[in-house]
Specification:
- By secondary structure, this protein is an alpha+beta fold.
- It folds into five domains: 21-195, Hypothetical protein af1432 (Orthogonal Bundle), CATH 1.10.3210; 213-353, Beta Polymerase, domain 2; 503-591, no CATH class; 596-656, no CATH class; 665-740, Alpha-Beta Plaits (2-Layer Sandwich), CATH 3.30.70.260.
- 50% of the residues lie in helices and 15% in strands.
- Strands 1, 2, 3, 4, 5 and 6 form a six-stranded mixed sheet that branches.
- The chain is elongated, with a radius of gyration of 37 Å.
Length: 743
């Protein structure tokens, strides 16, 4: 049974009537028919009347009337029972002794989670900071609270809309502060969700309190224009209706006046004279099918001249918030100009209610999680909004940076490009193919090696424009994003992912270096005590568990990293392992003196000069052969070097020394490529990212520019390292062959 309400109060704040719970029931019972769901909503209403008893708003009415209004707005959007209940309960945890656990017991986990999110938005305490950072932190907490559940967003928007309707009861300072926050925080989200009615009303109310004089002036001009154009408006509307009746096309036609805020934006922000704002008065024609939309457009253009450049087809190419309609601007016979919008009933519902129309409550097969995922898939910006909010929480990014990124990447994005399959991708101004790649998927961005725009290969820093068709070339062997990309990407998503990748890669490279250094240090210590590498491995394997536990390491690689940081020292490890010096072990100093400076030993030959050849530049790991040169000792070649392959005499067996010192050796390489912009830059960046020193590099074009040949001299430690570098170079777009050069 519904508790008795007090007598309905008179309108407040300029004519906004308060709704009763019975009126709310009339709305939700049109589409919610399950008696149990209806009863739960009634129980929620009875609960808030009791819990908020004695509480009033600044305007004087009982507090629970605000909760009815919020629930009424979400019910108009055809939200489900859980959302309506949560709307009624959204302040009960904050303002009464009710807990989230109480709500969970009475109305279930789903309602409890929504109310909890709404409560946290209100409750989160702000840290001490300067005014701008305080505001940014406040806004971030609102966004973070809304990011995971669209129902939280809808309730929060409804809550703010009703607060704006009753701002007259607050001080002038509070009116301006709330209006400004609404423009900064809530209106961009309402716009992105396609909630046109809510957005438009919010904008007009904000303008009323922020710019009251301009608001009243536009209102006066609109009223005057509507009076002077009334006869023309009716005549044009009747003529369009007559032709549609004659053609037996089902339709509804209505006229509408452009919102006050939209006119303010054109007149005061963009600087257009009021008389040159052509779409102040417009017709909206609603029909049944898409084909009929185009048929109506053709008929209107037959009888009225369209204004050039003013036709927009949002049916073929919907806006990112799923808005669809045909827009044209026509000249009436009496010289007046009107905008005409043509769409189906379904399109009109989405145009007015945005995502809520698509996501409206459906009894029977309703699945909130499935619907939420569908929305994220359809609204790419919302997926990015969720991801960006997650990253902000994980990385503890500054509030100001988060709000700036959110504004730039999502709320101000206005470049629309296509994937090869025709999907529309929205990007910020000055976006590049790399921004596009990361908007599609992080993995696509990380593996990006090239891009085609409208079928033509372009540099990765090319600025995209609306209508471009963008295709990203990827490679699994790509070295990953370059630091140079940070100089031209504009989306915070791309910048964040590039920095993450580079940071992770640098950490891995540093770790690999430390592992090698720690391993070599321990090996040197073992050898100094007379043990071979094989003996060291045997000792480590036998004592691995105790060794790792003692030094709090999970793997031997972790131990090598610790040794490279001198925590522990190699001597400490040897003492723990009880490794004693062998009687015949030479001191480390003596061993170093005996170590040959040449990395190659010549078998069966006494003291003789040995040098690496300059023609094939052998490096450790290559199969090698010695060639006896008169008066110059032995020159070491790779076995496949054409300068020695035919020799049958004067060849001697040589091998790489067991005690070879880590060093870098020059290697001449050649790359065969298809020419493209920034190719040489990408190659140099890839080598730089791998910390490969480049002594020289040259490029030349062949076959009238169809082919590019690049030669370079690089420094590498051994053949395995060279093979790894070759794999990376082959992963660069347009590079199709890499080889060593033999002079």
């Amino acid at each position: 049974m519904i508790m008795e309400e007090k007598k309905k109060l008179p309108p407040v704040n300029g004519g906004y009537s308060l709704h009763t719970f019975e009126q709310l029931k009339d709305v939700y019972e049109e589409y919610i028919h399950v008696e149990k769901d209806r009863q739960h909503i009634v129980e929620a209403f009875n609960f808030i009347v009791k819990k908020h008893e004695g509480q009033t708003r600044r305007s004087g009415e009982p507090y629970y009337h605000h909760l009815i209004e919020v629930a009424y707005i979400v019910a108009i959007l055809h939200c489900g029972p859980a959302t309506i209940i949560a709307a009624l309960l959204h302040d009960v945890v904050e303002d009464t002794d009710t807990t989230v656990e109480d709500i969970k017991k009475m109305w279930g986990e789903d309602v409890a989670q929504i109310v909890d999110s709404l409560t946290k938005i209100q409750r989160l305490k702000l840290s001490k900071m300067n005014a701008s950072e305080f505001e940014a932190e406040d806004h971030r907490k609102i966004f973070l609270g809304m990011a995971k559940d669209i129902r939280v967003i809808l309730i929060k928007l409804a809550d703010r809309l009703h607060n704006l309707r009753t701002l007259g009861a607050l001080s002038l300072e509070r009116q301006k502060a709330i209006s400004k926050e609404t423009l900064d925080v809530f209106i961009p989200i309402a716009h992105r969700l396609g909630l046109e009615k809510i957005k438009s009303e919010m904008q007009d109310l904000c303008l009323k309190y922020l710019e009251p004089e301009k608001y009243e002036e536009i209102k006066r001009l609109l009223s005057k224009k509507e009076k002077t154009m009334g006869k023309s408006l009716d005549s044009t509307k009747k003529r369009i209706a007559d032709i549609l009746f004659e053609k037996h096309i089902p339709f509804e036609i209505e006229s509408r006046i452009k919102s006050i805020y939209s006119i303010y934006n054109k007149v005061y922000i963009k600087g257009h004279p009021f008389d040159e704002v052509y779409d102040i008065l417009a017709f909206r024609i609603i029909t049944e099918t898409e084909i009929q939309c185009y048929e109506i457009l053709g008929l209107i253009h037959q009888i009225y001249k369209p204004v050039p450049g003013r036709f927009k087809d949002y049916i073929a190419m919907p806006k990112p918030n799923m808005y669809q309609s045909l827009h044209t601007t026509i000249l009436s016979g009496d010289g007046n100009i009107y905008e005409v919008q043509i769409r189906t009933k379904e399109m009109d519902e989405i145009a007015e209610s945005g995502v809520a129309a698509h996501w409206a409550y459906k009894e029977g097969g309703y699945n909130y999680e499935k619907e939420q995922k569908e929305i994220e898939n359809k609204l790419h910006w919302f997926r990015d909004f969720v991801a960006m909010s997650d990253e902000s929480s994980e990385e503890n990014a500054s509030a100001a940076e988060y709000i700036n990124n959110l504004t730039k990447d999502i709320f101000e994005a206005n470049i629309y490009v296509f994937t090869p399959k025709g999907k529309v991708i929205e990007l910020p101004n000055q976006a590049t193919p790399v921004d596009f790649a990361y908007r599609i998927h992080t993995k696509i961005g990380d593996q990006c090696v090239g891009a085609l725009v409208n079928g033509v290969m372009v540099p990765l820093n090319t600025v995209l424009k609306t209508g471009d068709i963008v295709e990203i070339r990827t490679s699994k062997t790509s070295p990953g994003p370059s630091e140079r990309w940070l100089d031209f990407v504009v989306s915070s998503t791309a910048k964040s992912q590039i920095r993450k990748f580079i940071s992770k890669r640098d950490a891995e490279l540093l770790r690999d270096e430390k592992i090698a250094k720690g391993h070599q240090s321990l090996l040197d210590a073992f050898k100094d005590r007379g043990y071979t590498e094989a003996e060291m491995k045997e000792i480590l394997d036998a004592n691995k568990k105790a060794l790792l536990e003692n030094y709090n390491c999970e793997t031997l690689d972790d131990l090598y990293v610790a040794i490279s940081n001198h925590k522990p020292s190699t001597n400490a490890v040897l003492e723990f392992l009880k490794v004693k010096r062998k009687d015949n072990a030479p001191s480390f100093r003596k061993k170093e003196i005996k170590r040959s400076t040449c990395p190659v030993r010549c078998k069966g030959v006494g003291k003789i000069a040995i040098a690496l050849s300059n023609c094939c530049n052998p490096i450790p790991g290559d199969d090698i052969i010695g060639y006896i040169t008169k008066g110059k000792g032995v020159t070491v070649h790779r076995k496949n070097c054409p300068n020695v392959m035919r020799e049958k005499e004067r060849l001697v067996e040589v091998c790489w020394s067991d005690e070879i010192e880590i060093s870098n050796y020059p290697v001449d390489i050649i790359l065969e490529c298809g020419d493209r912009p920034n190719l040489l830059t990408d190659i140099i960046n890839s080598l730089s990212q791998q910390k490969v020193a480049v002594n020289s590099i040259h490029a030349r074009l062949l076959n009238n520019g169809a082919k590019c040949v690049i030669t370079a001299t690089i420094l590498v430690s051994d053949a395995k390292r060279l093979r790894d570098i070759f794999d990376i170079l082959l992963g660069i777009s347009s590079v199709y062959n890499v080889d060593r050069v033999i002079h």
